[in-house]
């Protein structure tokens, strides 16, 4: 008869408190019952009669109960039948397979084997009809005893075959405890890490603090779970769950890093675009360029702005003498077609920039080449109000 059955995961064992009974026939102990007046004799000292050498093969430790009196009795019936009963507490080994933990089922055995008598002298048999009884109010904190099975497990050694009995106890782990203690907290941590998606991308301290805090909390939760389990070489179901949750939390933190990097890159690109647009606007407002190779209108008081404009041109624009002059996002290649009249200009022409449009020109013949109009000749103008600066006007 089984009492309480608590289990320990770390030690791979379980404890059981039971009342053990066995009976055998010993014809030497027959006596006269005086016509049914004496039903049986009772003894409290087991060493007064012969007893089978039974032991529990998977026992780690055990003890008898002696409060207030020793919890043991022996009954001898008139036909020589002996009934032995004792209350004992045992700690038994129970190797567990934790691959499905905490959704697993475990089978723990209770083995009873003859120590010295072989099957030629002693054979153990289960009692017919309900050999194992379980108390009705059996309550386990994390498990449910689904069923139990009785079987034989005779063992053969070099000294002979020994009789063996076993009871297989099938336990189902209660999931509600792990749902409250593990699964719901992990889900909450993942959801909290996703809160950073709704924060402003410029709130760097808040998003970093939230991501790092949830990541460290999830790592601590995982360490606490593994600390209560024995170290095994295979992956458990709880490891997959915590690993996925940890990946989601880390992914949220990594997402912020990528978004922040992309945001800074876009901001830098927009700043450069605005800078080039500002340069174009300033160049259009500084002076009124005239149609001539070396002539443009400019008030002398704006010379300082032109110097600044030249510096901006040198910083933000690049020039390739062989390919053309690039400004911002536009590039005009050097024309290779012959000039009107069949004469080649060669390298003796320069570059001018006027109102957002660049053109090549030949300073001697006043021929100009624009991307849209091609080669055209303009008359030379002399105007005292214009300031001719070949060093700035062409490169």
UniProtKB/TrEMBL annotation:
What keywords tag this UniProt record?
Cell membrane, Chloride, Chloride channel, Disulfide bond, Ion channel, Ion transport, Ligand-gated ion channel, Membrane, Postsynaptic cell membrane, Receptor, Signal, Synapse, Transmembrane, Transmembrane helix, Transport
Gene Ontology molecular function, alphabetical: extracellularly glutamate-gated chloride channel activity; transmembrane signaling receptor activity
Q: Which residues are in the Neurotransmitter-gated ion-channel transmembrane domain? A: 182-274
**Record keyword Transferase present:** no
Tell me how this protein sits in the membrane: Multi-pass membrane protein
User: For this UniProt entry, which segments traverse the membrane?
Assistant: 175-199, 240-262
Q: Which residues form the Neurotransmitter-gated ion-channel ligand-binding domain?
A: 11-173
What InterPro entries is this protein classified in? GABAA/Glycine_rcpt (IPR006028), GluCl_TM (IPR044721), Neur_chan_lig-bd (IPR006202), Neur_chan_lig-bd_sf (IPR036734), Neur_channel (IPR006201), Neuro-gated_channel_TM_sf (IPR036719), Neuro_actylchol_rec (IPR038050), Neurotrans-gated_channel_TM (IPR006029)
Example of a GO cellular component annotation carried by this entry: chloride channel complex
Where is this chain's protein located in or outside the cell? Answer: Postsynaptic cell membrane
* Family matches, as Pfam families: Neur_chan_LBD, Neur_chan_memb
By sequence similarity, the record places it as follows: Belongs to the ligand-gated ion channel (TC 1.A.9) family. Glutamate-gated chloride channel (TC 1.A.9.4) subfamily.
Q: What is this protein called?
A: Glutamate-gated chloride channel
Query: What organism is the protein native to?
Result: Acyrthosiphon pisum (Pea aphid)
């Amino acid at each position: 008869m089984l009492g309480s059955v608590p289990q320990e995961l770390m030690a791979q064992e379980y404890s059981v408190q039971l009342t053990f009974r066995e009976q055998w026939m010993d014809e030497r102990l027959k006596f006269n019952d005086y016509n049914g007046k004496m039903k049986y004799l009772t003894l409290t000292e087991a060493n007064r009669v012969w007893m089978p050498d039974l032991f529990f093969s998977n026992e780690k430790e055990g003890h008898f109960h002696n409060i207030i009196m020793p919890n043991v009795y022996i009954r001898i019936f008139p036909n020589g039948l002996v009934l032995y009963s004792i209350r004992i507490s045992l700690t038994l080994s129970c190797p567990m397979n934790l691959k499905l933990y905490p959704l697993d089922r475990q089978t723990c055995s209770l083995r009873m084997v003859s120590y010295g008598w072989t099957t030629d002298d002693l054979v153990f048999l289960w009692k017919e009809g309900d050999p194992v009884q379980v108390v009705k109010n059996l309550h386990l904190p994390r498990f449910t005893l689904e069923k139990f099975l009785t079987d034989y497990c005779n063992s053969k050694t070099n000294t002979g075959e020994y009789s063996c009995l076993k009871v297989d106890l099938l336990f189902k782990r209660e999931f509600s405890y792990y749902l409250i203690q593990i699964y719901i907290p992990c889900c909450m941590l993942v959801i909290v890490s996703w809160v950073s998606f709704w924060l402003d991308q410029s709130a760097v301290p808040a998003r970093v603090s939230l991501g790092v805090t949830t990541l460290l909390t999830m790592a601590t939760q995982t360490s606490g779970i593994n600390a209560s389990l024995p170290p095994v070489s295979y992956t458990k179901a709880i490891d997959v769950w915590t690993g996925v949750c940890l990946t989601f939390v880390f992914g949220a933190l990594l997402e912020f890093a990528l978004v922040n990097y992309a945001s800074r890159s876009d901001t830098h690109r927009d700043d450069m675009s605005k800078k080039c647009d500002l340069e174009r606007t300033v160049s259009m407002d500084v002076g009124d360029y005239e149609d001539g190779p070396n002539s443009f209108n400019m008030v002398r008081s704006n010379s300082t702005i032109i110097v600044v404009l030249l510096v901006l041109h040198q910083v933000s624009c690049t020039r390739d003498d062989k390919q053309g002059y690039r400004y911002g996002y536009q590039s005009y290649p050097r024309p290779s077609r012959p000039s009107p009249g069949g004469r080649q200009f060669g390298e003796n022409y320069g570059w001018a920039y006027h109102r957002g449009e660049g053109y090549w020109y030949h300073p001697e013949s006043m021929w100009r080449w624009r991307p849209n109009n091609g080669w055209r000749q303009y008359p030379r103008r002399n105007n005292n109000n214009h300031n001719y600066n070949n060093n700035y006007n062409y490169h």
